[in-house]
Amino acid sequence: MAKPVVTPQEVTDCFVLEGARYFDDRGFFTELFNETKTKDISEKLGACKQVSLSQSKANVLRGIHTSQYSKLVCCLSGRLIDYVIDLREGSPTYMKWISVELTPQNGKQLYVPPGCGHMFVALEDNTLMCYIQSGTFNPPFEMEVNFADPQIGIKLPNSDVSIYTISDKDRNSPMLAEAQAVYKARHAK
């Protein structure tokens, strides 16, 4: 298979990965990840430590979740808008965010660098998101930030927030300044 195309995004270290697809009368085949063809990506992703799958109905909003490990995400069914928010203080793109539509048809994968926030909005029922992670979920090292923080200014597909299904945890997440202060206090010891 051909080497995937890597398209850098406006958030430092974030990129879209598009692998070759081979079609025949059965459908298609693609490699989601092959360390021999993407050495530089393999180094960023490190060893795969966790693979997760989420299923969402239309208008589900998940995030902003921030981890200290990288993620490579893709949409296996349905359609979604995926967001990466640079929450790394000192980064040249700190507070910048990007959004990318992920679908099974476009085959795009999005690399979320460590320390960046991640969220998505499902646009269709039965939207499946696959996460390939370089680390495992570890609550003391995770940081949740409220998606509606005006300091970040995320533009959602529909500005009427009442249409979205949001977990209590995500809806009640603190704004960025408070989330960062709590995170720093937790790790100051």
Which helices and strands appear, and what pairs or packs with what?
Blueprint: E1 5-8, E2 15-18, E3 21-24, E4 27-30, H1 39-45, E5 50-56, E6 60-66, E7 71-77, E8 80-86, E9 97-102, E10 108-112, E11 116-122, E12 127-133, E13 143-144, E14 165-166, H2 168-171, H3 176-186
Parallel strand pairs: 6-14
Antiparallel strand pairs: 1-2, 2-10, 3-4, 5-12, 6-11, 6-13, 7-10, 7-12, 8-9, 8-11
Description:
With 189 residues, the protein is mostly beta strands. The chain has one domain (5-186): Jelly Rolls (Sandwich). Helix content is 12%, strand content 39%. It has a six-stranded antiparallel beta sheet, with no helix packed on it. Strands 6, 8, 9, 11, 13 and 14 form a six-stranded mixed beta sheet that branches. The chain has a two-stranded antiparallel sheet with strand order 3-4. Strand 3 and strand 4 form a beta hairpin. The relative contact order is 0.22.
Estimate what percentage of residues fall within beta strands: 35-45%
Shape: globular
CATH class: Mainly Beta
Low-confidence stretches: none
Number of strands: 14
Secondary structure: helix percent: 10-25%
pLDDT averaged over residues? 92
Class by SSE composition = mainly beta
Give the count of helical stretches: 3
The arrangement of helices and strands along the chain is: EEEEHEEEEEEEEEEHH
Query: How are the strands ordered across the major sheet?
Result: 1-2-10-7-12-5
From the alpha carbons, calculate the radius of gyration and give it in angstroms. 17 Å
Please, what is the CATH homologous superfamily? Answer: Jelly Rolls
| CATH fold-level topology | Jelly Rolls
Largest sheet: 6 strands, antiparallel
N- to C-terminal separation?
49 Å
CATH architecture: Sandwich
Kindly give the count of domains: 1
